[in-house]
Design brief:
Elements: E1 3-12, E2 15-24, E3 30-34, H1 41-49, E4 56-61, E5 64-65, E6 76-79, H2 91-100, H3 110-124, H4 139-152, E7 157-161, H5 169-186, E8 189-194, H6 197-203, E9 206-211, E10 214-219, H7 221-226, H8 231-236, E11 240-248, E12 251-253, E13 262-263, E14 267-268, E15 275-282, E16 286-289, E17 296-304, E18 307-314, E19 317-324, E20 333-338, E21 341-345
Parallel strand pairs: 3-8, 3-9, 6-7, 7-8, 14-21
Antiparallel strand pairs: 1-2, 1-4, 4-5, 9-10, 11-12, 11-15, 12-13, 15-21, 16-20, 17-18, 17-20, 18-19
Length: 347
Amino acid sequence: MSVTVQGVSRRFGPAQALKGINLSTRNGEFVALLGPSGSGKTTLLRILAGLDYPDEGSVQIGGREMAQVPARSRRIGFVFQHYALFRHMSVFENVAFGLRVRPRRERQSEDEIGRRVRRLLERMGIAELEKRRPEQISGGQRQRVALARALAIEPRVLLLDEPFGALDAAVRHGLRRWLRDLHTELGLTSLFVTHDQQEAMELADRVAVMEAGRIAQFDTPDAVLDQPADAFVAGFLGQAARLPATLRNGMLEFAPLPLPPLPSTVLTCAPHLAGPVLAFVRAHEWEVVEQAQPNAVIRSCRPDGSRAHAEIGMDGAVIEAELPFPGLRPGTACHLRARTARVFPAA
């Protein structure tokens, strides 16, 4: 089911949460809304669900305008960050809730509701938990219950708001992989809110990077990483150092930092740029050169598999770099240089 958002704006008093949002998904697509806190991600999700309404613009689901369609009639499945399960109900009753509160003419028999709920619990891998209450199961199991409840109503669109934000790293990683497999199996159009870049890149077919109520870029994970649309996207994604620089005579100069200049042929930038610019260098794009005049000092070095994450001090600046492991010891003088950079106009 396609979702189309056109010119959607939303204000809360003097604060504008959304500013003319345009977004269109394909049938069966998995879309991530990625951005920092306050960028408008959850507000947009709530408007899609019918839990909030835009001041301007329109929302269409499957080609139908949603302005006059209440939340209960949109057939939207919504999974909240903190589960929102009914504590006094069993797992079975939580999943069955949306089916039992339907209008009488649409409500199925108790036998059919029971069969559907148990099929979902089986698919979620939690069939043995149907009689337990939420406080008797783990966080990862609660999230599966919340997802089963959202799917029970056979939604046209699935919305997930920070679905793994309350879970520890190991459980979160396993559930991400499981959710992606489930999405592929169901073919359901899904939009999920996250501030976790790795989560967005791992799960989504396309990523909408949001900043201050606008969509800065909407593209595939590879494209937003390799071809950022503006300085915000370049700085937000990929653990990039943001450095003032100057493009002059085909060279990128990093003064006042004592970094070697880079020829423009290795840069990602608009061809017309010249003069003051902002250069973004990702952690893996740095190189420490041995047997060269030192221009920096290793402040810390933490191993991570075959690489090491280093903090490198340079004239008061701190640069994060990924280096081959074993890395250099803290306190070691080194010569640091960039292999490439993404360049945008100076603010």
